[in-house]
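note to self — DONT lose this again. spent like an hour looking for the file last time. sequence + predicted structure for the chain T wanted, 376 res
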Amino acid sequence: MFDKELMTKSVDLAEKHRKVLHEMPEKGLSEYRTTAYIRDVCREYPVETIDIGIETGLVCFLDAGKAETIALRADIDALPTEQGPRHLCGHDAHTATLLGAMHYLCAVKEDLPYNVLFVFQPAEEGTHGARIMLDHGLFEKAPQMPVRMFGIHNRPEVDCGDIVVHKGPLMSEKSIFTVTYKGVPGHGSLPHKCVDPIVAAASFVTGIQTIVSRNADPFEPVICTVNSLVAGGPDIPVPREAVITGYFRSFDHSTHLRMEERLRSLAANTAAAYECSCDTDIVDVVPAVDNPESLYDIASRAAEAAAGHDHVVDRKACLASEDFALFGKELPSFFYWVGSGTPGKVCASWHDPSFKVDPQYTKTAVPLLVAAVMTE
């Protein structure tokens, strides 16, 4: 399937791009230098830039004169940290991989079975960049609506050279919640004249653990996590309000709806028990990444072409979330994990300060994206 000399050059270019991009991490919707770099690289190739009216991110179209189009997506943003943005999730490698695949696909343009839509997506961290692109008419403004879409993400727990091809739910649906308890503030020496929202909030935090242990099917993976509780201060013995934030994740949508129902009920009933008022806000962030059975065969054959039969593996789904799932609501889409771990070593996972992508990653990732286009 591949021209070996051309593929070697494409992989080498991808690694060169990765090193450059790694040194310019930018948080979501602020990827101005990254976008400028991608745009400069794309000017070297016979692709048309599609203006969808967003400041960061880029969409390009390779017209191979074919009747159908395949879309390829990479995320371009870095992870915000206390030390500033850092590429601790490997999006620099994803972007570089798509640029490497563009080099190869443009060189063999006349032999391609499909046109190609290259989607460089901003703001995956926070999971809203895909929604922004869709709301700005990503597919409506493309010369052709793609017949399918492929995306990749590195996986440090998987050795370089291996590709995870998983059928069905791969990454979870995610919702975030904010629960605000409001009481009656006052002096700590007069508790009988106050209504303490912290007591209600503390009860909610412990009670929420039962949503997973007592309300969810034990054979359905779910997570319900509180990540902040903010109330009062050193000079406010009994505060006016306590604010709790968190999220819940699941693969099954009906389970997800049940979790939301129980969370709202628990919040309201806890407020009543402690004579507080309560506001509950739940935002559905992304659906689950669900790889359809209809694309499993073609996705598997593309992976085998890129890595060889023995390096196509399956792994359990994980309860992280990915806004690639939103594209899957618009057209048939398949999401791969590509091994980025160094064989024989325990590698830091996504968002860990020690996270890194093994340089051998692009040797598998670039051929995979190329094969996803060339496999019929």
